[in-house]
Amino acid sequence: MKDLLRTEHLSRNDVELILDTAAQFAKSPLRSKDALANQTVAIYMTKSSTRTRLASETAVAHLGGTPIFLRGDDLQIGRGETISDTAKIISGFASALIVRTFAQSDVDELGAHSTIPVLNGLTDTDHPTQLLADWLTIREVFGEDISGRKFTYVGDGNNMSHAWLTMGAIMGAHVVVATPPGKWAPQESAVKSAKEIASKTGATIEVLTDPEAAANGASVLYTDVWMSMGDPEEVRAEKLNALAPYAITKNLMSLTAPDSIFMHCLPAHRGEEVAAEVIDGPKSVIWREAYHRRTTIQAILYHLIRGEIKGNH
């Protein structure tokens, strides 16, 4: 597999390979410090970023490469140059491309026309690098045996809910997403895709509207901001009102398993999607989770440039 464009393209073996290598990079960040020696990696972002940018640039540096950061308005693509032309130009200068943008179709097109590996650093519908960091954190806490455990996401049915279902399906896990019904539920296509993967892996997929049922007995309670980048400001009041019952409170956390953890991809809005006493409390693993954005992106790059990620086909 040349690129990592969508979470659903990964196999369980791919995920395990990436997580194993990322765990090694966590212990020894410079263990492969010549893998990208004298090479560059382009990092193209049309969305603002803290963790993905820092993680990507650091990962490239730890592999011995030079990151080249490009904002959306830095390139001629903002003045009408086609995505395919841009992909070909970047391929002539860089050894890999990391993209963080709005439309998944733009990332897919960059992958189709690039001769170098393209890595999806977030789109409006998916976030594979985040889920790899999440699952490395989960593995550190619970080990590799996840039988009998339930992994729950509560909140907006956004790109994170899609990726949560998909990665859980790949890993053969019992994954749950609880969102309001209607316009802030996960996309039907994402749910269908996760269920198709689950039918092969033995995973259990649940999409609910009851946050308490979703939280009951869960090993992980996960959430994301309610207003995502690109959400129109005019829907704020309606959306926050619909999502209010899905806030991660101390009471909701009390329904989870005794050894449960709280996770959040960040940035967080304390007092909206999560109470401060939860996100800053003893069950929260958000800082370790954020740290693993670097280790997992480093592992993805390492294996993509070596052609060692096989895909699920």
Automatic annotation (TrEMBL):
- The organism's lineage? unclassified sequences, metagenomes, ecological metagenomes
Q: Does the keyword Transferase apply?
A: yes
Task: Kindly state which keywords UniProt assigns to this record, in alphabetical order.
Answer: Transferase
Q: Spell out where the chain crosses the membrane.
A: none
Q: Which NCBIfam families match?
A: orni_carb_tr, PRK00779.1
Instruction: List the Pfam families hit by this protein, alphabetically.
Output: OTCace (PF00185), OTCace_N (PF02729)
Q: Where is the Aspartate/ornithine carbamoyltransferase Asp/Orn-binding domain?
A: 148-304
| MF (Gene Ontology) | amino acid binding; ornithine carbamoyltransferase activity
List, alphabetically, the InterPro entries matched.
Asp/Orn_carbamoyltranf_P-bd, Asp/Orn_carbamoylTrfase, Asp/Orn_carbamoylTrfase_sf, Asp_carbamoyltransf_Asp/Orn-bd, Orn/put_carbamltrans
Q: Give the UniProt record's GO annotations in the biological process aspect.
A: citrulline biosynthetic process; L-arginine biosynthetic process via ornithine
The protein's name in its UniProt record: Unannotated protein
- The residues covered by the Aspartate/ornithine carbamoyltransferase carbamoyl-P binding domain are 2-140
